[in-house]
Amino acid sequence: MQTTSQSSLKPDSLKIVAPLGGILVPLDQVPDPVFAQKMVGDGISLDPISNELLAPVSGTVTQLHNAHHALTITTPEGIEVLVHIGLDTVMLRGDGFSPRVKMGDTVKVGQPVIGFDADRVGRNARSLLTEIVVANFERVAHMTPATGMVEAGRSVILELTLKDGAANGTGVADTAAPGAEAQSEGIPLPNHAGLHARPAAVLAGAAKTFSSQIHLIRGDDKVNAKSLVAIMGLSTKQGDVVTIKATGPDADKAIAALATLIADGCGEKPGEAPQPAAETAATTARAFPTDANEIAGVPASPGLAIGQIFQYRHDVVEVEQKGGASADERRKLDTALAEAGSQIEELKGHMRDPSKAKILDAHKELLEDPDLVNLALDGIAGGSSAAYSWREAFTRYAKQLEGLDNPLLRERATDIRDVGRRVLGLLAGIRQEKIEVPQDAILVAEDLAPSDIASIDRTRVLGFCTTSGGATSHVAIIARSFGIPAICGIDESALHLDNGAQVLLDGGRGMLRRNPNEAEVARAREQIAKLAERRREELATAMQPAQTRDGHRIEVVANIRNADDALAAVAAGGEGVGLLRSEFLFDERDQAPSEDEQARSYGAVAEVLGRGRPLIIRTLDVGGDKPLSYLPLPKEENPFLGLRGIRVSLDQPEMFRTQLRAILRAAPLSDLHIMFPMIATLEELRAAKRILAEEQAAGASETSAAASVKVGIMVEVPSAAVQADILAAECDFFSIGTNDLTQYTLAMDRGHPKLARQADGLHPAVLRMIKLTTDGARKHGKWVGVCGGIASDLIAIPVLIGLGVKELSVTVPTIPAIKAAIGRLSLSECQALADEVLALGTAEQVRARLAPFAE
Ligand code: PEP
Ligand code: MG
After folding, report:
1. pTM of this prediction?
2. Taking Cα atoms as reference points, which of 732, 720, 727 lies closest to residue 674?
3. Mutate to test the pocket of ligand 1, among 787, 793, 808, 810 (most ligand atoms within 8 A of CB)
4. 6-168: CATH homologous superfamily?
5. What is the mean pLDDT of residues 831-847?
6. Residues paired with 514 in a beta bridge
7. What is the CATH number assigned to the segment(s) 180-263?
8. Which residues contact 563 (CB under 8 A, 6 or more apart)?
9. Cα separation of 29 and 233, whole Å?
10. Does ligand 1 come within 6 angstroms of the Cβ of 738?
11. If you measure from the C-alpha of residue 677 to the centroid of ligand 2, how many angstroms do you get, rounded to a whole number?
12. DSSP structure class, residue 299
């Protein structure tokens, strides 16, 4: 290994030195497409063994992310060297990182720039793999990466030959080209973590395809939109309003394209439930305050509220330990349990939303839980009072659950405490008083149980903050279903805020702001009013079956991952589930889930939906670009064209059979549909069906419902669309995966920084594929749904309906808006529109024609 103390030797070459000690890993082996596909730039990755990041080159710090996990140093030659510590570390929002430099500092190679707590970051992030990439790689003629073990600050890890003239460059050209000037409206950033590496790369890549000079503007900050580093340097956050300005010959075109790209999340699927890694982080990552007036927690339900603090507390119930005769104590316990059951029934009677009533059903079951009741009876048998024994029993039981690894089970401890307190109150002769909540209250509590929420006057509550729980807690689920903002796991200092103090609650950021100034309040009020008006209109009709204004029925169902999502979907007006992404259960673990674990998970979703709503479970959709650590699959040159989707299941039949058995166990509980992903050929469909039929036959004695399960395929490969009439004869339904269908139809990688913008699901070629699919299905009387991203996009709804799509499977938060949009359309208008856009030549023309439907 070559070592050096200089970062550059000749003016046309540059040596980049290891910023950390560790083992070098080729960039394309990094398990994150942003880096592996070189969206951010080319370079190398390093598995670190040290925890002080040193400057890999001498230069100026031109970007230091506010989460302190990444920085860029620009060398005097204008080469931008970006170092990104770990994967998905943006979600840690600075936790565990200590910057030693600030923006604008001049640094020498080998100088410490960021310290980090490797243990803490390693525990909370996906990986510690650190990437060192040249962001403006277009200036590099040749790169020689090193391999093996390297020493921080000494070993050369990349040797670059710069292109002619690059040595004098200063970054991406930002000179004004002659021509028109155009500027977009303000666009609120939908991205969960702002324009971090991935979306910034997509935006810069797209901006570079225009010859105009392009700027991204936020408030007084204005940066070159063709520079990844400059965009990242803005340190934007979700909800920041940005505008895009272009000057030059193609200014109008640039604004139209880039504004849409930003509004759509720059390839990050804004409305979509977060990606696995981001979701994990979102459920645990606590926001970090940037000033003393902010109190941080975990974002649990998005939205803004301005209200007054109301500290919500449970009375402490005092009980005597010593009991009377055990028969008497037992009678008291039985009576209290029965009375609690009636109270819950009564409470349920006031609930119109079946998903919340279900939570109370679970409470009733707990009253009959033999383990819990026996624990209390043991206490009584030992001479303790019924109240004391019961309190001991339910707190012990709740603590047991709280100690488990499974966050969902941990959250259920809240139910036990809730129902436990109800019975305890009855045993102690204390009536559960209804707590009077003031108007415009932001409720702050250690915990809010479902029955607390059920018994408060909702019209007075604008938001919740709890010091316990996370994004999967009931408070979070219920807040999301109420559509009010919530923060869970908030810092305990929130418990000491005075009742009546005005605060600004930002659920999306997980931040509570005390002492907001007038301008902040006014801004928030304006935003709240706009959103509320729109949501009011949409929610008014969300629970009704979706239909066009001329009575054509369209099913609006949800894309989900688990039972909690199913609850949220039903609460938002979802008429069922059109895509249960089962791969979430298989991800981020060291072995495949067992049949029982899978069956429990699918069963939980089935129970939420009941037999009256369709449940479509997609079998495992991994492989290729989405590897599973425990799955022995070969490394492939073209992962999107390799072992992926159903091909993995056919290659690993035992895993497939286990999953099918688990899915079939949900059949008696639900209107079950099984869907195979990425079917490209009739042979694949037949092979998958044969295995399913064998499992159905093997389990026939257990359940006859399993035999009536519907079987469908995802149409996401052109061959399936073209042969839809053949495939339709052998399955019950199609669901079009437009995300993949688009990339395969246009031969454009859906995550490619330069191509993603053109890989548009509204491209006429993709629309023609959809038409082939609906035409083929119609010949056999089969129905077609769409579960890809465009189903959640208002602009696409009329054309999909016009093409004959009967079901739209959408992201949960968009359900009310999609249903409302359907109600504004007529079938004949949609059909005429579909005919019209099918005849167009480009996606841009389609978008222009459909633009009036975007809002
Ligand atoms: C699709 O391809 O459109 C789809 C819904 O599947 P995924 O996005 O999970 O690949
Ligand atoms: Mg797909």
Report:
1. 0.49
2. 732
3. 787
4. Glucose Permease (Domain IIA) (2.70.70.10)
5. 96
6. 503
7. 3.30.1340.10
8. 601, 604, 605, 607, 608
9. 27
10. yes
11. 7
12. E
